[in-house]
Amino acid sequence: MSKKNDVKTILDEWLSGIPAVRCYSQKMKIYAPTCKGKCEGAVKKLETRVNEILLGSTTYKASGCWWDDEKKDMVCEPNHVIEAAHNCHDKKTLAKIASAIADYAVEANQTDMAILNNHFYLAQRIPLVEYTEELQAQLR
């Protein structure tokens, strides 16, 4: 199938032709563990902040698993996936999103944060917080 006739191109052309359709260039997913129910409040704060910054999201329940070297076992726990479309091209919006994620990571005591934004990232909490603070300092 040629590029001109592929389904994605045809669908994009159709959607962009509808009056009052908004097109977002990016889609972000933030995987927020619930700490086996102990940090639901932190998850809700993160969801609220994402909604305020990006003007909406879809949240759904999932299960996240990882290998624990100390326990020599797979660890699984409930997660909320916060998915939001955006055109996040300015540093102020980026700083707000980074701050929301870093604040959640600290409050929920997460070692790593999983984020999908065109690529899948595992961000360690301490460098994430440090980078967020540097980014905010640049904007002052």
Task: Describe, in short, the structure shown.
The protein has 140 residues and is of the alpha+beta class. 40% of the residues lie in helices and 32% in strands.
Order of helices and strands: HEHEEHEEH
Globular, elongated, flat, extended or rod-shaped: what is the shape? globular
> What is the third-level CATH name, the topology?
Alpha-Beta Plaits
Domain count: the total is 1
Share of residues in strands: 25-35%
> What's the total count of β strands?
5
Helix/strand structural class: alpha+beta
Mean pLDDT: 90
The helix content is 40-55%
- The first-level CATH class name: Alpha Beta
Q: Mind describing the biggest β-sheet?
A: 5 strands, antiparallel
Number of helical elements: 4
Query: Would you identify the regions where 5 or more consecutive residues have pLDDT less than 50?
Result: none
Report the end-to-end length measured between terminal Cα atoms: 50 Å
| Level-2 CATH architecture | 2-Layer Sandwich
As an assembly, this protein is single chain
Rg, alpha carbons: 18 Å
Main-sheet strand order equals 2-3-1-4-5
Model description:
Helix 2 (40-54) runs antiparallel to helix 3 and helix 3 packs antiparallel against helix 4. It is built from four helices and five strands. A five-stranded antiparallel β-sheet has the order 2-3-1-4-5. The chain has one domain (25-138): Alpha-Beta Plaits (2-Layer Sandwich). It is of the alpha+beta class and 140 residues long. The chain has helices spanning 7-16, 40-54, 91-107, 125-138; strands spanning 26-33, 58-68, 73-86, 112-117, 119-124. 40% of the residues lie in helices and 32% in strands.
